[in-house]
Amino acid sequence: MEIQRIVRDLVTTKRDSWLAAKSLRVVEDASGALSVALDPIGCKPGDFVITMGGTAARLATDDRRITTDLTIGGIIDHWSVDDW
Amino acid sequence: MEIQRIVRDLVTTKRDSWLAAKSLRVVEDASGALSVALDPIGCKPGDFVITMGGTAARLATDDRRITTDLTIGGIIDHWSVDDW
Amino acid sequence: MEIQRIVRDLVTTKRDSWLAAKSLRVVEDASGALSVALDPIGCKPGDFVITMGGTAARLATDDRRITTDLTIGGIIDHWSVDDW
Amino acid sequence: MEIQRIVRDLVTTKRDSWLAAKSLRVVEDASGALSVALDPIGCKPGDFVITMGGTAARLATDDRRITTDLTIGGIIDHWSVDDW
Amino acid sequence: MEIQRIVRDLVTTKRDSWLAAKSLRVVEDASGALSVALDPIGCKPGDFVITMGGTAARLATDDRRITTDLTIGGIIDHWSVDDW
User: Fold this and answer.
1) What are the pLDDT digits (tens) for D36-56?
2) d(CA A66, CA A16)
3) I want to staple C60 with a disulfide (CB 3.0 to 4.6 A). Which of C15, C71, C84, E63 is the partner?
4) What is the pLDDT of residues B20-44, one digit of tens each?
5) Is B29 helix (H, G, I), strand (E, B) or coil?
6) How does C20-34 read in b/e, with b if 16+ C-beta sit within 10 Å?
7) How many other β-carbons are positioned within 10 Å of the β-carbon of residue D34?
8) Comparison of pLDDT for C20 and E2, the residue scoring more
9) What was the pLDDT predicted at B25?
10) Which residue of chain B comes nearest to D77, CA vs CA?
């Protein structure tokens, strides 16, 4: 799993049907690189989270057919930019 | 998922049969690195999109046997080079 | 598999239910980049370990539905920072 | 999928039995990094190709048990070093 | 598949049970970065090999439940540091 920080929500049009009703967040890693993660938990900008990729990303949703390759698995307690 | 921008179409010969009738696009990431993504939505050059990899890429097509490892999942609203 | 070193434990709230009762460790690689791995063995900070990713990470737990994409597979004997 | 260029054939001994009768090519990416891809199409040095990884690499062969993680999916028309 | 060179054997304690009786090797890539690969063939330090990752790594062993994400698939003939 990777440690990432929530940047903001992501709004898309013409979205794949399996992702249509899901919350997507822009996340950044320690180097500032951006990715997009599905959020089944309810995170807010600034939260440090762990994300999982691959098949684990789909298992971490409520429906394995959901077409995510990156899903938020938990909010990290006691983490700051200095720990990164 | 990754945030990428559509560069152009990709034309191939001797293509794998599962990909034969599919639209492929050259996409670039924030660093300018190029990849090729299957486009089930209909994107045009300059669109910012989210792409998913791995098994999720196949689930995002209409036939799981399609041999893609990168598929476009949606067009992003309100995104510009400055957000990247 | 990758060679990584245990940095510390990771405490999360609102964790995905499959990960809820599992031990998670922050690990670092030779370049100092941090990841999070599930620990089914019982490691302590400073241990050098091998980690496996992808589906192998789930197979290395006692329940394949566990949503990990990185799991510790063993503690390395006779390894030091100089070997890295 | 990635855009890569055929460098040369690869000859191995003691090869895994599933790969034994298959053509393998050394391919390079835009940065010059080398990988090895299974070639079910018949490419020659200098051809620009698209390659797929992961499970898609196995689906792009005629037998899903073949132990490839990178397979050539098509030869690109109208591509040159300048496009890279 | 990647081109890597055998560095040395790897000895671990408290190893995952599926890996317990298997030979593991430390391998390096062209940049000198180290990984750990399962060796079903019998390689010696200095051999240049191809390695496969993901599910292909498990298929290249004699038991798909083995928790490897990197397996040696063959020894390369006629390869030297200059080819790298």
Assistant:
1) 999 999 999 999 999 999 999
2) 10
3) C71
4) 778 999 999 999 999 999 999 999 9
5) coil
6) eebebbbbebeeeeb
7) 18
8) E2
9) 97
10) B12
Question: Which of A19, A54, A65 minimises the CB distance to B73?
Answer: A19
In whole angstroms, what separates CA E15 from the centre of its chain? 17
Among E15, E18, E39, smallest CA distance to C50 is for E15
Q: What is the pLDDT of residue A55?
A: 94
Q: In chain D, which residues have their Cβ closer than 8 Å to the Cβ of E84?
A: 34
This model of the complex carries an ipTM of 0.92
The predicted pLDDT at position A80 comes to 86
Please indicate whether, in this complex, the C-beta atoms of C69 and A50 are within 8 angstroms of each other. Answer: no
Check residue D45 and give its pLDDT.
97
Interface of D with E (CB under 8 A): 10-16, 18-19, 24, 26, 33-37, 53-55, 57-58, 65, 67-70
Q: Which residue has the tokens 């293509």?
A: B15
Quickly tell me which residue has 């003939």 as its tokens.
E77
Q: Which residues of E1-19 are buried (b: 16+ CB within 10 A; e: fewer)?
A: bbbbbbbeebebeebbebb
Q: For residue C48, what are the contacts with CB-CB under 8 A and spacing of at least 6?
A: C3, C4, C5, C75, C76, C79, C80
What is the phi-psi region of residue E28: left when phi exceeds 0, alpha when psi lies from -120 to 50, beta otherwise? Answer: beta
pLDDT of residue A41: 93
